[in-house]
Model the fold of this input.
Amino acid sequence: MEYPKRNKVLIIGSGPAGLTAAIYCARANLNPIVFEGYQAGGQLTMTTDVENFPGFPEGIMGPNLMDLLRSQAQKFGAKCITRQIDNVNFSSQPFVLQSGSDILEADSVIISTGASAKLLGIKGEDKFVGKGLSTCATCDGFFFKDKSIHVIGGGDSAMEEAIFLTKFASKVTVLHRRDTLRASKIMVDRAIKNPKIDFIWNANPKEFLGNDDKGLNGLIYKDTKTGNDINIDTDGVFVAIGHNPNTSLFKDVLDMDSSGYLITEGKSSKTNIPGVFASGDVQDSTYRQAITAAGSGCMAAIDAERFLEEKGEL
Ligand SMILES: Cc1cc2nc3c(=O)[nH]c(=O)nc-3n(C[C@H](O)[C@H](O)[C@H](O)COP(=O)(O)OP(=O)(O)OC[C@H]3O[C@@H](n4cnc5c(N)ncnc54)[C@H](O)[C@@H]3O)c2cc1C
Done:
């Protein structure tokens, strides 16, 4: 095994939350081990410019930011393992975790497995994420100043994104596959009253179009009423059809809300099992930002350290 079997702190996930937890744990001499998972560096590795992470006035490319966080954690002794955790048993101490055929033990665990934006799974989607196609208006709205853009979705998050995007874009067109919206009445009213927002109803997106140089510049949707394929130009698309927290591993093990987000206690990172902590998007359906994820990773590390101290493990 390329890592110790018994660990004081095992961190699951290597996005801003997991790596910030690793920096703090490593500096507290807890020798954290980080299981990075299939997406080492987390969601920011899917994007280009990050302009709202403090400390980078010129902005920084998402993958570069994550490389810096990983180097910082490793500099203080964190071990990053590019493997997945496949199973957990939190029923007794030490906790038992499985990665492939390896069995590990940990006195405390920090869960930072993030959340994934739901995507449509249509042609061109993977190619244009971060190149004109976004799943986060707060993150990327600023890049679409005076542009004509499209938002896909019909729920509250789609309306929220569309309204937010009108601060930047010259025009926001919402594409929805039905002829009524699922969003709450108040959000629908706000969106419909907004002079910058238009709707295309009964529109089922089929393909994103563009080129390698300039990125996304169009899309094809099927008009479900007529059956016709319609080709439209766009300066950018926001897919706003919700998020899935990565919590299937913890089903029936940890308390979750109705959408599957881990529940943490009060202002802490504590889950319902003492010694198991959660940080980042996996427990945050509201903010979902790199800086809030990093902040909660710091909280989880401090909570883990205090837990170990109280148990006499330090
Ligand atoms: C395209 C895009 C652009 C964005 N732009 C910005 C931006 O400009 N500014 C901003 O603040 N935010 C931005 N965000 C949001 C930001 O990326 C997230 O809020 C942040 O990454 C959440 O961090 P996290 O550590 O909670 O989880 P994530 O970054 O989602 O990382 C989750 C980690 O968990 C790992 N994992 C999952 N399951 C397992 C398992 N079983 N075993 C081991 N590891 C596992 C994954 O491999 C991954 O490393 C953007 C998001 C996207 C998708």
About this structure: Helices lie at 16-27, 62-75, 125-128, 137-140, 156-165, 185-193, 290-311. DSSP finds seven helices and 19 strands in the chain.
